[in-house]
Every structure is written in structure tokens, then in C-alpha cells.
Write a structure and sequence with these properties.
With 272 residues, the protein is of the alpha/beta class. It contains twelve helices and eight strands.
């Protein structure tokens, strides 16, 4: 669906580069159909050498050149980036935002352009294992929705929702979610080292245990409580460990963390 489309990426940081890499790796688009805009010459040269894509220092040029324009800048940069792009997108062009907290209405007003897709990917997208939730403005056509599915699917799994408010919730759950897992992994590895395991051994044990548990949960289709009960023998090691986790308020702390991330996402949207 994208072979004849020109795609511009404005502000290619880690997520923007992940999208470029995914699109090219899956041969969804040719390198000469991708134009990357970045202010630093060093970064432009790096991306051009790595992927063979076109580069530019002019965001306006990139926005006008592409049919699909990916906005991948940091949230605090959006107010400076968007106003000069006003009027550069043509009828039929699609803008896809991966900017946390930036609303469809805010981007549409700043660009004076109605066809906007707002998305929230997460960091595993950098290896093609991401989870991206997205919503489209009412003006986005079915064809443009297909473009969005293909572009965002290059990052891993994608899920369209019909309510933009779900994006802030997804930011708190899947967008920020890897940080929760990384923190848990760090704590478990450190505990293993404290018990006397070599760090490399503890890391391998924790990583494979987490990966295997997720895959087992996906394949079983069972509720997490059922899976947990299945490995919690009365008076056993799992029961002892879970008792400590519950006593420490793990559920409450984790829930509070998700809510804090949600509130911050909403705040970022209001600031934008």
C-alpha cells in the first residue's frame, strides 16, 4: 500500500528511526521514497548512511514533499515545530503523530490540516515488537487509515481505537509500560546478585522468565489470576513471595504509577 507513497519523518529520534527501519526492513517503501528532516547535520548524515534515505534540514520542505508526514519530535518541541508547517500539507496528505500527549485537535489547528492520526507506540518498537495504539480524526479516509495501519504496523502490533481519550490511557499502560517491566527486571536481577548469583546469570534467568511468562499467558488465554494460582502451591516459595509483595502494596503502588502516568499525559495534552 505504501510503495508509491512518499513518506517524510520530521524529528527522527529513536521512535522515528524505528519507523524508518521497520518500513525499509519489511520492504513496505523504498529508501528513495523516504525523506528525513533533522536540524543536526551529523544526525542527517548518520541516517542517510544507515538507510539510504533522503535528508533535509528544512521541516517545511519535508512536510510539503511527503504524502504521509510522521511527526516524531519531543512533546516540548511541538509548539516550535508546528507553526512553520502551517499550510505546507496538501489535500489528501496524512499526518501521523507519535508525540506523547499531543491531541488530534491541537495538531490539526496548528497545521490547518484536518487529516491527523495520533498514535502511542512504545520502546519495543525499536526491534519490531512494539504495541501501538492509535486514533484517527473523522476526516481521515479509509485509504488513509490503511496507510496508518501499514506504517504503524511496521513497529509491531497496532490497534485502532475510536475514542481519542484512550490514547492517554494507552500512554500510561503500554507507552510507559516498558519502564515498569524494566524496573521490575532490575530489582529481580539485583536480588539475584544479592543472593550470590553472578550478574550475567541473574540477568539471563530474569529475562527468559519474563519472556516465557508473557508468551505462556498469550498462548493460554487464561486470566492472570488463574496463571498465578497455578504456580502458587500452599505453603510454597511462590506463596511466600506473593505474601511479601501484597504486604508491600505492590498492586496499589503499580496502579498509582499507571494513574500518575495517565494524569501526566493529559497535562501534556493541555500544555500543547
Amino acid at each position: 500500500m505504501l510503495k508509491d507513497l512518499r513518506i517524510s519523518v520530521i524529528g527522527p529520534g529513536a521512535m522515528g528511526e524505528a519507523m524508518i527501519g521497520g518500513l525499509l526492513r519489511q520492504e513496505l517503501v523504498a529508501p528513495d521514497h523516504v525523506l528525513v528532516s533533522h536540524p543536526r547535520e551529523e544526525r542527517r548524515r548518520e541516517l542517510q548512511a544507515r538507510y539510504g534515505v533522503g535528508v533535509s534540514a528544512d521541516n517545511g520542505e519535508a512536510a510539503h514533499w511527503g504524502r504521509v508526514i510522521i511527526l516524531a519530535v519531543k512533546p516540548q518541541m511541538l509548539k516550535r515545530i508546528l507553526p512553520p508547517l502551517r499550510g505546507t500539507l496538501r489535500e489528501g496528505d496524512l499526518a501521523i503523530s507519535v508525540v506523547a500527549g499531543a491531541t488530534i485537535g491541537g495538531i490539526a489547528a496548528a497545521l490547518d490540516h484536518p487529516t491527523i492520526v495520533r498514535s502511542m507506540p512504545n520502546t519495543p518498537a525499536q526491534i519490531g515488537e512494539g504495541m501501538t495504539v492509535w486514533a484517527a480524526a473523522p476526516e481521515v479516509s479509509e485509504q488513509q487509515r490503511g496507510w496508518a495501519r501499514t506504517v504503524l504496523g511496521a513497529l509491531g502490533r497496532e490497534l485502532e481505537v475510536d475514542n481519542e481519550h484512550y490514547l492517554d490511557m494507552a500512554t500510561a499502560l503500554s507507552g510507559t509500560g516498558p519502564a515498569y517491566f524494566f524496573l521490575m527486571m532490575e530489582a529481580m536481577v539485583d536480588a539475584g546478585v544479592h543472593m550470590g548469583l553472578p550478574r550475567r546469570v541473574a540477568e539471563e534467568l530474569v529475562q527468559q522468565t519474563m519472556l516465557g511468562s508473557v508468551r505462556f499467558a498469550q498462548q493460554s488465554g487464561a486470566h492472570p489470576a488463574q496463571l498465578r494460582n497455578a504456580v502458587t502451591s500452599p505453603g510454597g516459595t511462590s506463596a511466600a513471595a506473593i505474601s511479601e509483595l501484597e504486604r508491600g502494596g505492590m498492586r496499589t503502588v503499580l496502579s498509582d504509577a499507571v494513574w500518575a502516568a495517565y494524569r501526566r499525559s493529559v497535562e501534556l495534552g493541555k500544555q500543547g
